């Protein structure tokens, strides 16, 4: 482990992320996400995430005919941030995994806030309680994360800190949420009984209208 800071813990090293995505994802649960965007410290414990793999994963941005301007960050190096904009108003925070040249990322879907709740409420237009961070777009907004952070390495304005491992029986696995394809893969992981887990349900993305 390297580096320590106000969280009172060590930053996770690149080697943590340089492993198969489906192994990294459940181990991300319980770790501490921290942001110093705007000079304000905000932190939270990750309670829900999803793994996204390479070209054979129909739900992944890497399911293309190769590297594109959008997905190139997914191909490494590991330990970087992959941030994209979706549905016209949401930023999504992902942690790049796998060896460089292999596509993989873990989407942070929900966190339990710990420090900086006032700043989170301000960024979330006064919302509070579980509504602060119980969804991936909410997490990015609450922590001040946007496209400026795409491709940056963890350890700058955005960091991930170590914490005691979560016991396997506290982790629930399911299909992923909000996908047109690949939703059935058991690549969503969350902490059982945690109030900040998102309310979405696995299955095909609902069409409007």
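Sequence proposed for the structure above (209 residues):
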């Amino acid at each position: 482990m390297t580096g320590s800071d106000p969280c009172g813990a060590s930053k996770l090293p690149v080697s943590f992320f340089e492993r198969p995505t489906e192994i990294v994802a459940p181990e991300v649960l319980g770790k501490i996400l921290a942001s110093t965007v705007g000079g304000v410290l905000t932190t939270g414990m990750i309670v829900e995430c999803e793994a996204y793999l390479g070209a054979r994963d129909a739900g992944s941005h890497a399911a293309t005919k190769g590297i594109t301007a959008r997905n190139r960050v997914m191909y490494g190096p590991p330990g970087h941030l992959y941030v994209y904009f979706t549905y016209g108003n949401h930023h999504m925070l992902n942690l790049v995994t796998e060896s460089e040249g292999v596509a993989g990322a873990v989407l942070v879907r929900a966190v339990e806030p710990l420090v900086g709740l006032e700043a989170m409420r301000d960024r979330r237009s006064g919302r509070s309680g579980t509504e602060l961070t119980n969804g991936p777009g909410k997490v990015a907004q609450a922590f001040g994360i946007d496209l400026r952070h795409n491709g940056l390495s963890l350890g700058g304005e955005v960091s991930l800190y170590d914490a005691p491992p979560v016991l396997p029986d506290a982790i629930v696995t399911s299909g992923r949420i909000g996908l047109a394809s690949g939703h059935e893969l058991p690549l969503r992981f969350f902490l059982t009984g945690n109030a900040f887990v998102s309310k979405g349900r696995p299955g095909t993305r609902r069409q409007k209208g």
